[in-house]
Amino acid sequence: MTGRTIWVLGDQLDRSIGPLSGADSTDTILMVESAEHLARRPWHRQRVHLIVAGMRRLAGELRSDGFDVDYRKAATYEDGLADHRRMRAPDRIVAMAPSSFGGRALFVRLGVELTADERFLTDPDAFAALFDGKARLTMEVFYRWQRRRLGYLMDGDQPATGRWNYDEENRQSLPKGGVDFPEPMVDALDEIDAAVLHDLPSTTVGAEPIGVWPTSRAAALARLRHAIDEVLPRFGPYEDAMTTTSWHLAHTLLSPALNVGLLHPREVADAIDEAWRAGKVPIASAEGLLRQVIGWREFVWCLYWHEGPSYIDRNELDARRPLPPVFVTGRTDMACVSHVLADVDTYGWTHHIPRLMILGNLALLAGVEPRSLLEWMWERFVDGAEWVMVPNVIGMALHADGGRMATKPYAAGGAYIDRMSDFCSGCRYDRKQRTGERACPFTTLYWDFLARHTDRLAGNHRMSRQVAASRALVDLPEVRSRAAVVLEQLDAGTL
User: Fold this and answer.
1) What tens digit of pLDDT does each residue of 404-447 get?
2) pLDDT at residue number 359
3) What three-state secondary structure class fits 6?
4) Which residue of 69, 70, 255, 330 lies most exposed, with the fewest beta carbons within 10 A?
5) Quick check: 461 pLDDT over 90?
6) pLDDT tens track for 92-110
7) Of 39-48, 130-139, 336-345, 355-364, minimum mean pLDDT range
8) Count of C-beta atoms within a 10 Å radius of residue 154
9) Does 266 have pLDDT greater than 60?
10) How far is CA 462 from CA 92, 367, 397, 403, 409, in A?
11) Could you tell me which residues come within 8 angstroms of residue 469 by beta carbon, excluding any fewer than 6 positions away?
């Protein structure tokens, strides 16, 4: 047999873009489950299930539409391709470019023709031109450029409401009576799901799926409609809040579907814009989600390619502590950390503030080696991918790039966590204390972090006031002594 083979990867499940969009009856569709890749790391079960179930469903849909699909379970991607070549003898093998440096290098080595990755709205080369010669890659500059270029929530070349963002309005803590957030959509698991779960490697971790994450195009579209109609109207004010009473709040939960190609960012942005113009969504909510979709998500994607393969190894704060055991065991008396890690185990997901200000913040304050946290978050989150996690961990959470991505380290003590959540109520530790056995570890480590990095941070205009405050603490020696104990307990898993 001769002809063209189109190789489709597990995060490219979009039939409307790439070589698959132009496939016809003369093409063969290749999909490979690599046992080596699936067992390479302790991936979260729901992450592996999402990808593999999505692949198998797409393969079934393509077969039903008359396509010749060669779906292979192989030891490695190389073995799967070699077997396909022996059996089908294609003239050409084409694929949309993989989403990582390593993936692209592998496909080039295997002789696969690559086309542009069409899963995003922004060409990394255009991003590079925008920031050519700039010392810092500023999200706000990029976001306004995106709005003007793409036309969302715009009136000509100006924002339709006269304001570019509503960030200040979108940082409210939850009222004492709480908020009734819409429940996520859930699909009953079927025989495909059962087969995938049966086939999962023994290395996977975390709870099994309950049907929250869509594994088909139809399910993803249903969730988009639910997100726009039911969730988005309540999103804006509390997008930075955290609570023990809801693992999802008013977050849309669309990132896993976006990251495997079951949704395209353009259709999400279109839906946001249409809902706001129809008067169905407040501007603060519409703008807040749009900023995440065409702003932050695209910014992170472009930054990954712009900074190059060496970005993953940046460690400008010289953080050397191994990943603390709590990230694996989940056992700790810190109520906020315990709760967030339980959500990660149960759903493979938490929203951006628990990721940044609980998990990332703890690692930042403790001086955890960046690569170890990066790999853990890459493995444990259902929407994780290398391009997602490298900038978010190296640049945003741990400030390991020295400020290339973010203007300041996102360090905070217990006061911030108490203000933005109900985690501190009933916790063994007291967020107001910085010394003594009941002192909140975040509060103690926050002041110790500022003291450790005083020389580096004193010249940062967004950190100079905090650094000055740390120098003025009359009990700073006691704080630092307590911090040493906290770090020993963190290392031992007894905190």
Assistant:
1) 999 899 999 999 999 999 999 989 999 999 999 999 999 999 99
2) 98
3) strand
4) 330
5) no
6) 999 999 999 999 999 999 9
7) 130-139
8) 15
9) yes
10) 54, 20, 16, 12, 9
11) 450
CA–CA dist 104, 398 (Å, integer): 27
pLDDT of residue 1: 52
Dihedrals phi, psi of 72, to nearest 5 degrees = -120, 140
Q: What is the dihedral of CA 153, 159, 164, 165, to 10 degrees?
A: -40
**Domains located in the chain, CATH noted:** 4-115 (3.40.50.620), 124-200+214-307 (1.25.40.80), 313-492 (1.10.579.10)
Task: Give the single-character DSSP code of 426.
Answer: T
CA distance readout (Å), 46 to 138, 212, 411: 33, 10, 30
- Please count the helices (runs of H) and the strands (runs of E) in the chain: 24, 7
| Mean pLDDT, the chain, integer | 96
**Number of Cβ atoms within 10 Å of the Cβ of 403:** 16
pTM score, whole prediction: 0.95
Helices (H), ranges, 348-391: 352-353, 361-366, 370-380, 386-389
Q: Give the residue carrying structure tokens 């190296």.
A: 394
> Rounded to whole angstroms, what are the CA distances from 433 to 358, 417, 421, 426?
18, 14, 18, 15
* Distances, alpha carbon 421 to alpha carbons 5, 241, 289, 373, 428, in Å: 51, 6, 21, 23, 16
CB atoms within 10 A of CB 65: 11
pLDDT at 3: 87
Long-range contacts formed by 152-159: CB under 8 A, 24+ apart: 152/269, 152/272, 152/273, 152/290, 152/294, 153/272, 153/273, 153/276, 153/283, 153/286, 153/287, 153/290
* DSSP codes, 107-123: HHHTT-EEE---SSSS-
| Residue at 336: amino acid letter | C
Cα–Cα dist 404/398, whole Å: 12
Which is nearest to 311 in space by CA: 395, 408, 374, 385?
395
Counting other chains too, the contacts that 289-293 makes at CB distance below 8 Å and 24 or more residues apart are: 289/232, 289/235, 289/252, 290/147, 290/152, 290/153, 291/143, 291/165, 291/167, 292/352, 293/258, 293/265, 293/268, 293/269
